[in-house]
Amino acid sequence: MTVRETANLQATVDAITHDSQATVHDGIQSLRRILASSPSLCAATFLDNVEHELAGNPFLRQVLVENSDGVRYCAAYEHAAAYRVLSGELTIPGSTETLSVVTMDGDTPLLKITQRFGRERTVSALVLASPMLMRQAVPLLSDIGYLQVSLTDGAPILLRGDQSAGPGGGRSEDYLAARSFAGDIPVKVEARISFSQVRADYAQLDVGFTIAACFMGILVLILAIQYVRKADVVAFDLERAIVAGEMKPYYQPVINLRTGKISGCEVLIRWVRKNGEIVPPAVFIDYAEMSGLAIPMTLSLMEQVRYDLEDLCREIPDFKISINLFEGHFRDGSIVDDIQSIFEGSGISYRQLVFEITERRPLDDRNAANRVITAMHKLGVRIAMDDAGTGHSNLADLQTLGIDIVKIDKIFVEMIKDPNVPVPVVDGLISMGRELGIEIVGEGVETQAQALYLRSKNVAFAQGYLFSPPLKLASFLVLADALKPSTKNTNLSRRLAA
Q: Is the pLDDT higher at 349 or at 61?
């Protein structure tokens, strides 16, 4: 009986943590969709996007914009959305968002998912901590003597039952106990039930926990099917795709805003299946980084870049090629050897290479990262900070990491509506770069007003759909030939003709 009922209790708490994990993941996706489709915060479009997500996500209770001191800029439903903070913020592994516990509308516990937006503002989504526990009557749990949902640092979210029945409250041998963690979300559940309760209600519990076990089995099966459907594209096929050469470079031009000529490009990876289907990067990039496949994937990409752009780099000596690296590259110093083995003696010189670090993910080992960046600088390559203003770096990081280029993220460039109206966030990033002697590149430029504004601030380079989307090699070479600074038409023209 003990083994069986312990297993049933474990199945129940596992169901609760699965519920919390799914709710937080849905909240993160709602928050990201709102930010991705909103040109600026608290404007009409932003509020419309918030309302759309609130209507589509039953566990999302509120979205609000605040400054670093908690002062409210705006919130959904146009009301104050008063809440009380119950915990500090914990990071969510693999995400730029943080998680904390709050209450709103009485004692209902909510999880606050927060994304920093620049230096001063935050955008937060408030979601139900565990929807299945928010119901008035929850079957199968009424006989559990103690149940606590909390953050992994111990900050409580919800407590049910007799606290004296919890850990430290009574002899452990008098209770059945179970604990479960919500995967990558910093939430845990602990439950205990007394042996006397099990013996007294064994018949009822047997039926109840059998139903719970069946419910959990169905839930796990559904989650497994969903995971396999998603992972089928990545986990079982990504390595084969790399070996088969299906990971292709697309090239987005970087334009000199002073001259209108091409000055370089960013290399963006696309998974192009043999049947021509293109798998979006969002499907496989996170898995590639987590699994370590990002390293051979980048190696394959660099090899293709060498072949694709050698002639162009010979013809335009100042042409710059930007290639994205992942956090794992800065723990694995082999990236420096890979750069040498691929580009040494090629038509692409080291000074024409730029390697980008995304600010959205932290560099966990700064000492290792500094060693790798120092070795890269010795070769002559340059380092760019991508997605500037959206993640984990700060002014000190730009100095200590030896950043040469800062790329202003699209979400800030989108704030530019009129070339004559100041945008403090953009101006601050430009000023910071200028004070440090760092080159600035504007990303995601889609309107003439944005290009004119950046040029008026002496930003020399920009990329975005105003100039061109990422292109296949043939189309990119045609565009590069038309926009190259030199009027000579030697090697590149011959290759185009071939």
A: 349
One domain, residues 114 and 253 = no
Cα 309 to chain centroid, rounded: 30
309 in Cβ contact with 321 (< 8 Å): yes
- Count up the domains in the chain and report the number: 2
62: left (phi over 0), alpha (psi -120 to 50) or beta: beta
* DSSP assignment string, 93-142: TTSS-EEEEEE-SSS-EEEEEEEEETTTEEEEEEEES-HHHHSSS-TT-T
Distances (CA, A) of 177 to 33, 148, 163, 164, 185: 39, 12, 14, 14, 22
pLDDT at position 321:
97
Q: Which domain holds residue 474?
A: 237-497
Q: Which residues, including other chains, have CB under 8 Å from residue 107's CB and lie 6 or more apart?
A: none
Domain ends where: 204, 230, 256? Answer: 230
- Confidence tier at 252 by pLDDT (50, 70, 90): very high
Phi, psi at residue 181, to the nearest 5°? -115, 145
Neighbouring CB atoms inside 10 A of 235's CB total 15
Domain termination site, one of 230, 245, 261: 230
Assess whether 193 and 314 both reside in one domain.
Answer: no
Cβ neighbours of residue 33 closer than 8 Å, sequence gap 6 or more: 49, 53
Q: Tens of pLDDT along 332-381? A: 778 898 999 999 999 999 999 999 987 656 666 778 888 899 999 999 99
Q: Determine the residue type at 134.
A: M
Weakest-pLDDT range from 205-209, 299-303, 399-403: 205-209
Per-residue model confidence (pLDDT) at position 493: 45
Give helix then strand counts, H and E, for the chain.
16, 20
Cα–Cα distance measured from residue 249 to residue 227, given in angstroms and rounded to the nearest whole number: 28
E strand segments, 154-273: 156-161, 175-181, 187-194, 247-256, 262-272
Helical spans, DSSP H, in 269-343: 281-291, 294-315, 334-343
Confidence class for position 205, pLDDT limits 50, 70, 90: very low
Q: Note whether 223 and 245 are same-domain residues.
A: no
pLDDT digits (tens, 9 = 90+) for 11-30: 777 878 888 888 888 899 88
The pTM for the full model equals 0.55
290 — phi, psi (to 5°)?
-65, -40
CA distances from 411 to 37, 228, 347, 408 (A): 9, 33, 35, 8
* Phi/psi of residue 153, nearest 5 degrees: -90, 5
User: Partners of 126 in the beta sheet?
Assistant: 62, 112
